[in-house]
# Entry
Amino acid sequence: MMISDAELIKGCIEGKQDVQQQLYKKFASSMFGVCLRYFDSREEAEDALQEGFIRVFTNLGTFRNEGSLEGWVRRIIVNTALNQLRNHQKHQHHLDLEEVENELSDEADLISNISKEDMLRLLVELPPGYRMVFNLYEIEGYSHKEIAEMFAISVSTSKTQLLKARKVLQKKVVELNKEKLKL
# Structure
């Protein structure tokens, strides 16, 4: 039996394990997809997912019903993934914005020809700094200013990493499409 988000929240706060399981099952699959976009391996993504859900259950009492429960859970999962990345690696891919802007080509039409699975694989192949900025800006909808504040970098660095991520992805998409044409 499916219960409402309000009932899920109430049951979880009361410590009902069956309700906690229902909340986990409701969001785990989509949130694992979110985690996969940030990490090189499934194991790292699973770790972030588990840590994120621990934070969800710990902080569920602070949910103020301003927006969807799913959006609130997603934000915690994303922040958990970012914290884990921050703790494990330094951001080292910084170039001048003007250098990159001049190099980008417009091959966006090619992206529409690839599957979600191929796109996820290509995202995972990006260097960590590029991947984080790309995910936060293009998928999660953060601004460059917000990204810069999260990582204590300049707005220009955030923009540069996004442009470089796009360039790398475009190149990989072209290669992937060429491979598919050969098949």
In short: Confidence is low (pLDDT under 50) at residues 90-109. The chain has two domains: 5-88, 97-182.
